[in-house]
Amino acid sequence: MRASRRFPLFIATIIVLIAIGGCGGGGHLSFPTPQGTFTNANLNGPYAFSYTGSDAGGFLSVAGSFQADGSGHITSGTQDINSGAAVRTNAAITGTYAVRADGRGSATLNSPAGNTTIDFVLVAGGHALVTRFDANATGSGTIDLQTTSAFSNTALAGSFAFSLSGIDTGGVPLAVAGNFTSDASGNLTAGIDDSNDNGIVTTNDPLTGSIPVAATGRGAATLNTSRGALHFAYYVVDANHLKVVGIDVIPALGGEAFRQTGPFSNASVSGPFAFTVAGADLLNGAPFAAGGVLTSNGAGSITSGIEDFNDAGVITTNATFTGTYSLAANGRGTLTLTTTAGTFNFAMYPSSGGVLVLEIDVRFLTSGAALQQQTTAFTSGSLSGTYGMNFTGATTSSELDSIAEFTADGINKVTGIIDLNNSGAITFGQPLTGTFNAAANGRTTMPLQTSLGTQNMVVYMVNANRALFIEIDASLVAAGDIRHQ
């Protein structure tokens, strides 16, 4: 299976914004000087962006595209915004941006739909990790360089898997995953989805519809399900990757779609994987995150695995598990994990974005991805050089989003700079320090010292260029992504 290029977005479980206490005490800190060789020229060309989070209206999902000129100007662009009860489509964008020496940057997006600020950190391959960074909203997502030759129905013909999350008509968590196949005219010829609507689970639901794309790279999608028609705008990154935002007032959804390439069988999911999932414990309506590493044998069995949980501040670490899975020829599979904390069931869809998973249990509503790891043993030297980092965190009443840049010494230390949006309270350019101790399976603990105090992260390395992580503190449930610059 191909390596992933994305991190799934935290399902929005929080729709009331109030200040939160953070992870610990933290007094006034100095502003470190960014180190590196990045300039405005490193953001140059057509880009697609998306993020999900929260604003005063509740759940927030945004997707769009812009043209950066390499000199600090956004000369044109378009965005679609789903914010609470208000939806704005095809809104024009202009603006300015500045890239700092360490690859952290900020952009002001001016639009008839309202002016916004985003904070980002550039990483390798024409990508950036992004946080909404003003007092009006918070959220996390990505920016990706576009391949304009993919702006056609013909280029997008074939199969995609998708993962979407947000809220339903009652304002409670909803997540949907599935796949579809389209023809060269943008019509769906096959499709299926699974959904978890606050514990009401629907599986193997057939899809019909269409996904025509314009020459601008913005498309319009209609997915007809047994629950009714869902309407989306999407932005093409390349022929294998789409950024998606719902344009129905409700349900409100956002996410991504990735190319599926068959044929599919149990052998399509074989080897060591790192994974994270995030969402809600529906029993108490509180945020939940889990992460770990596992090994599948390509014949339907999970032979071994270790997992960590943060269930609204109740922490479980190093829980062992085994499991079974089955992948059908249509690219949809099921996965059952048997752990010391119970049994968990998922629908899964292998794709160029990793194995996309949606939990189909009535108590937990989580989604995420499993990314295939390198097959050689990890060492501390596997984490070496400069990296960008992004995470989304939640308490029972608010959301926190962050980007950071750090240097790992390949031995046991990291140093860097972090920016935080704590439900609209902005903290910029603060020092980040930490330690790590990598195990051969790629799992490493990484306590970080930030302006929030001590943040205890558990990191799951995919390879020397990519890692996923969760936070295991009682005061903050968080999940995030690390990528090499």
Kindly describe this structure.
- The chain has a nine-stranded antiparallel β-sheet with strand order 13-12-11-10-18-17-16-15-14, with no helix packed on it.
- Helix content is 1%, strand content 65%.
- The relative contact order is 0.17.
- The chain has one helix spanning 153-156, and strands at residues 44-55, 58-69, 73-83, 86-92, 94-99, 104-110, 116-123, 127-134, 137-145, 158-167, 173-182, 188-197, 200-206, 208-210, 218-225, 228-238, 241-246, 252-260, 270-281, 286-297, 301-311, 314-327, 333-339, 342-351, 354-359, 364-372, 384-394, 399-409, 413-422, 425-435, 437-438, 443-450, 453-463, 466-473, 476-484.
- It has four domains: 40-145, Quinohemoprotein amine dehydrogenase alpha subunit, domain 2 (Lipocalin, Beta Barrel), CATH 2.40.128.120; 149-260, Beta Barrel (Lipocalin); 266-370, Quinohemoprotein amine dehydrogenase alpha subunit, domain 2 (Lipocalin), CATH 2.40.128.120; 380-484, Lipocalin, CATH 2.40.128.
- It has 485 residues and is mainly β.
- It is globular.
- β25 and β26 (364-372) form a beta hairpin.
Total strand segments: 35
Q: Count the helices. How many?
A: 1
Oligomer: single chain
**Name given to the CATH homologous superfamily of the largest domain:** Quinohemoprotein amine dehydrogenase alpha subunit, domain 2
**Percentage of residues assigned to helices:** under 10%
What CATH first level of the largest domain would be assigned?
Mainly Beta
Shape annotation: globular
- Examine the secondary-structure arrangement and name the CATH architecture of the largest domain: Beta Barrel
Largest sheet: 9 strands, antiparallel
**Total domains:** 4
In whole angstroms, the N-to-C terminal distance is: 24 Å
Strand composition percent: over 45%
With strands numbered from the N-terminus, the spatial order across the biggest sheet is: 13-12-11-10-18-17-16-15-14
Mean pLDDT: 93
Rg over alpha carbons: 20 Å
